[in-house]
Amino acid sequence: MRLHSLLGLIGLGYLATASNVPPRNYESHDYYVLHLDSSTPPSQIAIKLGLTHEGQLGELQDHHIFSCHKEEDDIVRTALKERRQKKRSTGDSDILDGVKFAQKQKLKARLEKRGPIPPPPKGYQSPVEQRQEGPAPSGLARQAFVADSLGISDPIFHEQWHLYNPVQMGHDVNVTDVWLQGITGFNATVAIVDDGLDMYSDDLKGNYFAEGSWDFNDNTAEPKPRLSDDRHGTRCAGEVSAVKNDVCGVGVAYDSKIAGIRILSKLITDADEAIAMNYAFQLNQIYSCSWGPPDDGLSMEAPGILIKKAMVNAVQNGRDGKGSIYVFASGNGAAKEDNCNFDGYTNSIYSITVGAIDRKGLHPYYSEHCSAQLVVTYSSGSNDAIHTTDVGTNQCYPGHGGTSAAAPLAAGIFALVLGIRPDLTWRDMQYLVMQTALPIDLDTGEWQTTSIGKKFSHTFGYGKIDSWATVEAAKTFENVKPQAWYYSPWIHVNQAIPQGNEGLAVSFEVTSTMLKEANVERLEHVTVTMNVAHGRRGDLSVDLVSPDKLVSHLSVTRKFDSSKDGYNDWTFMSVVHWGESGIGTWTVIVKDTEVNEHNGTFVDWHLKLWGESIDADKQTLLPMPDEHDDDDHDKIITSTTTIAGTTQAITPLPAPTSIITNPTDHPDRPVNAKPTGTTEDETASPTNSAAPEATTSASSWLPSFFPTFGVSSKTQIWIYGAAGLIIVFCAGLGVYFYMARRKRLRNNPRDEWEFDLIEEDEAEGLNTGRRSAKAGKGSKRRAGELYDAFAAGSEDESEDEYVDGVEGGDEREKRLYDDDDEGEGQHVIGDDEDDEIPDEKGSQR
Ligand SMILES: *[C@@H]1O[C@H](CO)[C@@H](O)[C@H](O)[C@H]1NC(C)=O
Ligand SMILES: *[C@@H]1O[C@H](CO)[C@@H](O)[C@H](O)[C@H]1NC(C)=O
Ligand SMILES: *[C@@H]1O[C@H](CO)[C@@H](O)[C@H](O)[C@H]1NC(C)=O
């Protein structure tokens, strides 16, 4: 055993040098990640703490991994605590003072591999009953022409309706004319972050990119499928990059390179996931991720801080500073009322979230809705699925589906784009996708027309990807200026949320001065971080209404979510407001629609507007996220004067524009003054937000209060600043809003926005409720649990052996894939339950 592991260490040691990923042994060792002051040598920290320095944490500067033999305690935390006490009493200095952050690594709890299967929709037919319409003669002719012209002789190309659909004409990714221009993904690289990929498949090996690949589960350079159900990554890879040859079909970018990053097949730590998300990020351009927290309609989980840092690092430093492109599947929990804003990966501004439509262009029942979803593309539903490559030398799979299959298809299309425009940044790609998506199903999609004349639906995002349109636009796309941002201060509410159809609405006014100070020209993403205490989380919903009266359903009710945790510093994201100026009143409306014993309090919120900068030269990069980023609201209360609020009872007003007066109507009034002498120059200050000194009311009827946010302490200096117009109005809003909603969303929501204001003394109790809201916070937040979301759940795992010594106990390690045995015959099309249409399966995406 000992010798064996020693040999293993030597072998892996070699690979580790090549790849910078040292081997891990979670059975015998503990691992710590320490963020050190750049002047603090990790070697000395190691000596001081009795640890072994394992090297830098992937691509994260000043973050290091240390190991030691397994112990119950968090020995680093203990040592740091002692050190702090000593420092307080003696005031001396010590090498340990250079430790900025320390985290003992835990194997993440393995969440359900396959959740309960959502019921198929009414009218669902099994594939056996299915009776597709026949292909159109013109469609067949076109398909034959394309195959001929491009020399495509892949045997299942004619089944790959997502590439060219001769039956439901027009329901495909519209890629054939892109290929005919010779744009086939050459020079582009996609990494499939998943359960590995079969680099020995004859359909993949020609495009396999070893330099970008790593197996984080088995600590080897080759991310081969090793478990019986390690097939998901291979199927995803085939969609992107299956070679044009005589095996199966072709990928949408069939000349692109495809890498595998295997993380889903065993428990891993946040540290390893952080390394994986940055793996070979100068070479891998796109990371396709068809996984996330469970789609069970009750989870609300975000990646841990190290993973968040890795993602920011990727967009800032990956691809030589142009930024890695993350593509995430929106999730398959729609039938359980799950929503992609409850998933911290899909609602990250750094990921392009992709939902699914089926071969008839319909919304499949599994594909999640949310305001963070940018776009959709084809996957399973209407009795068919995606036909792609499978594990094995020459194996195909006709049943790949769920949003799992949509994300890689999108990633492949983005590879076509990067093949001709490798200079596009991560944000350029989002602009391109947003601008060229094709709205579909206009009758049922609850479409809103946005400020820049685009259409957005929470079901379809900006629509379906049209590869041709995207590539055409890419040819002449002009890079956007760097990212800028504006953070509002924390807005304290501390009001009970009325039950029923009433809502509690709170507004904040953003002035042109604030955005000018923040160097923000026009919006891209909007995020709202909020705290709501509630006895039953699933009863809550949250809407955000922009100055242009566009509505983001940030949160929706979820019948299965009976958590008592409420929202704890949870960040919701919206892409609905793309292109708006951001100037004017932003309103958050929290509702508790169920009249029951579960009540709640809206504690506070914080608005962040992300967008393109005005002056590129002035713009700095966003500082790395920090685990204390959301801690400052407690401080703002103590560091500001009271947020004196006034509200006013008002009966329904006919013209919505008279309710909320946009400050742009009064461009010359003195809105804000720059604070003087407020910052004792904490250069890390990420915001360029303006600090208000004086503001005046924007309208004659609206009683205004303009709180002065004073100088904040150094820990949150970056948030200081920004004037607030806070209006709390509730009640009447409810019924009216509700009834108006349907119509409003179908039509132009901006024309019909109406609500009432009633009196509430919101100045009262500003400081109450904060505690209780925050109680229970902490352990809940670290989540980011990685789990897989595999396609096609076979029921064949019962015989799997357990691997001992791994927390969670359900680690499956049935070896199916040894070098000499590729399991031929296990993957024959149509011979087992794997071939069921997977969109009736549970938690795969
Ligand atoms: C598809 O591509 C063609 C060019 O081949 C283009 O004319 C058309 O507008 C695109 N979109 C659709 C929906 O066909
Ligand atoms: C691929 O990239 C290389 C190096 O950047 C470049 O010289 C070549 O022209 C590219 N090929 C295509 C087809 O874009
Ligand atoms: C629910 O209502 C009770 C009674 O008004 C109150 O004491 C409690 O704080 C409320 N709960 C929340 C989470 O706001």
Automatic annotation (TrEMBL):
Designated name of the protein: Kexin
Protein family (similarity comment): Belongs to the peptidase S8 family. Furin subfamily.
Superkingdom of this protein's organism: Eukaryota
Comp. bias (Acidic residues): 794-808
Occurrences of domain P/Homo B (ranges): 480-615
Residues of the signal peptide: 1-18
GO terms, biological process: peptide pheromone maturation; protein processing
GO cellular component labels: Golgi membrane; trans-Golgi network
Transmembrane region(s): 717-740
An example Gene Ontology molecular-function term: serine-type endopeptidase activity
InterPro entries: Galactose-bd-like_sf (IPR008979), Kexin/furin (IPR034182), P_dom (IPR002884), Peptidase_S8/S53_dom (IPR000209), Peptidase_S8/S53_dom_sf (IPR036852), Peptidase_S8_His-AS (IPR022398), Peptidase_S8_Ser-AS (IPR023828), Peptidase_S8_subtilisin-rel (IPR015500)
The UniProt record lists the keyword Repeat: no
Bias kind Low complexity: ranges: 684-697
Main location: membrane
Disordered: annotated span: 109-138, 653-697, 788-845
The organism's taxonomic lineage, starting at the top: Eukaryota, Fungi, Dikarya, Ascomycota, Pezizomycotina
Keyword Calcium in annotation: yes
Keywords from the named record: Calcium, Glycoprotein, Hydrolase, Membrane, Protease, Serine protease, Signal, Transmembrane, Transmembrane helix, Zymogen
PANTHER family, per database record: NEUROENDOCRINE CONVERTASE 1 (PTHR42884:SF14), PROPROTEIN CONVERTASE SUBTILISIN/KEXIN-RELATED (PTHR42884)
Species name: Hyphodiscus hymeniophilus
One Pfam family from the record: P_proprotein
UniProt-annotated location(s): Membrane
Active site positions: D194 (charge relay system), H232 (charge relay system), S404 (charge relay system)
